[in-house]
Structures are given as structure tokens and as C-alpha cells.
Specification:
The chain has about 220 residues and is mainly alpha-helical. The protein is built from 9 helices and 3 strands. The chain has a 3-stranded antiparallel β-sheet with strand order 1-2-3. The model has no long low-confidence stretch (mean pLDDT about 90).
């Protein structure tokens, strides 16, 4: 069942009033996930094509890159799983998300005032969330099949070759989604502050996630 806000979301009194958006543990885990993803991209690209092998110098050479890459993947899977368990209920697709998507052109033209009200996450953010969840699952499953050090006989050679192809294609899409996520965070001022400080001005919440703010105003119980 979809929910409008997460535990810890609340309005903080003050002048100007602030809204608590992400808890400390959530923010730390987000940056662990982001760091693991960047390390995976760099080490993966180093092994993807000879022209990118120079990136292996970051990790101390080709052998170290090959050894470290799957462990970066393990860290990513564990950290993203924790984020998934916390965020999946607020990322369910709803009818209002379809309406938001139909007005995407207004957003790109800078007419944000024409956008429908969004919950804690808009349709674009939900797309990134579910895309990464699916892609990380594919990357993990295919990565296990081709992890020769620990699973050399898990699948026949033909299946391993297909796993390498699936791993590469999923990685390309994951990089594109990562770029979209980073660009959106830069484009929408205040997004980085939310994931660094954990709180946003009420005015920011009203402008970008008005339905979420409305839900918090009507949230039962005292605002702690």
C-alpha cells in the first residue's frame, strides 16, 4: 500500500519553518550507495574497453580493478537494499504520477507552476528508483554468474557469455539513469541540501512536493 510520507518526516517549527525530509542514517546510506555506484562505474569502464583501461590506475592496476569491482557491487546491493526497504512504499506509481508525466514539457520549459502537485517523490524520481532497483538486480544476478573467483562452475560457458552481455547492457542503462539522477539533483536547487542536511525549507517543499507537505500538515500526532 502506498504511503504519503516516511517515518521521521515532520514539520520543524522555526522562522522560516523547515521540513525534515531524510533521517541521518538514510543520508549516510545514500552516500554509501552513491560512492559504490561511482566506483563500480569507474572500475567497470576500465574493464569494458581498452581505451578506458587508464581508469584502472585509480585502483592500482588491472588486477586490483578486477578484484575490487565485484566487491563494490556487493556493497551497492546491500546499501541499495536498505534504501529500497525504506522507500518502496512511497514510490508506488499512482494516477497523479501519470498526470505529472503528461506535464513534463511544462517542467522542461521552466513553467513549474503548471505542474500537478507531487508527493514526496514525483514521477521522475520514481522512475529513477524503480529503474535502479531493476538494473541493480540484473547486475547482481549476472555478476554472480561471471564472478570466476568464487563461482567458476555456476553456469556453463554459453550462459556466462550471455550474463556478460546482460551485465554490460544493464550497466550502460544504469549509468544513464545515474546521470539523469545527478543532473536532476543539480537542476532542482535544494535537492543536495536535502540529502546533506536532511531538511528543506517549507517553501521548497510547497514548490516541489506540495502534496507531501499537505500530508505532513495533516499528519496525526505532535510534530516532534
Amino acid at each position: 500500500m502506498s504511503r504519503l510520507f516516511e517515518p521521521g518526516d515532520r514539520i520543524l517549527p522555526g522562522s522560516p519553518p523547515m521540513v525534515s525530509r531524510y533521517r541521518l542514517g538514510t543520508r549516510i546510506n545514500h552516500w554509501v550507495t552513491a560512492t559504490a555506484m561511482v566506483l563500480l562505474v569507474l572500475s567497470g569502464l576500465a574493464m569494458f574497453h581498452p581505451s578506458l583501461f587508464f581508469l584502472s590506475a585509480i585502483f592500482g592496476g588491472g588486477q586490483n580493478t578486477r578484484a575490487l569491482h565485484p566487491w563494490f557491487g556487493v556493497v551497492l546491493v546491500v546499501s541499495f537494499l536498505l534504501l529500497f526497504l525504506e522507500f518502496w512504499r512511497t514510490n508506488f506509481w499512482s494516477r497523479s504520477d501519470l498526470n505529472w508525466s503528461l506535464h513534463l514539457g511544462d517542467l522542461l520549459k521552466g513553467h513549474e507552476e503548471k505542474m500537478p502537485e507531487a508527493g514526496k517523490y514525483n514521477a521522475g524520481q520514481k522512475f529513477v528508483f524503480w529503474s535502479m532497483a531493476l538494473l541493480i538486480l540484473v547486475l547482481f544476478a549476472s555478476g554472480i554468474v561471471i564472478w570466476q573467483e568464487y563461482f567458476p562452475h555456476l553456469a556453463p560457458v554459453g550462459s556466462q557469455r550471455l550474463a556478460i552481455l546482460a551485465h554490460s547492457v544493464a550497466a550502460i542503462f544504469a549509468i544513464l539513469v545515474l546521470i539523469l539522477h545527478a543532473y536532476s539533483a543539480i537542476w532542482v536547487r535544494g535537492s543536495f541540501d536535502a540529502m546533506i542536511k536532511g531538511r528543506v525549507p517549507a517553501g521548497w517543499a510547497w514548490r516541489h512536493h506540495r502534496a507531501w507537505l499537505r500530508a505532513l500538515v495533516g499528519k496525526p500526532g505532535p510534530a516532534e
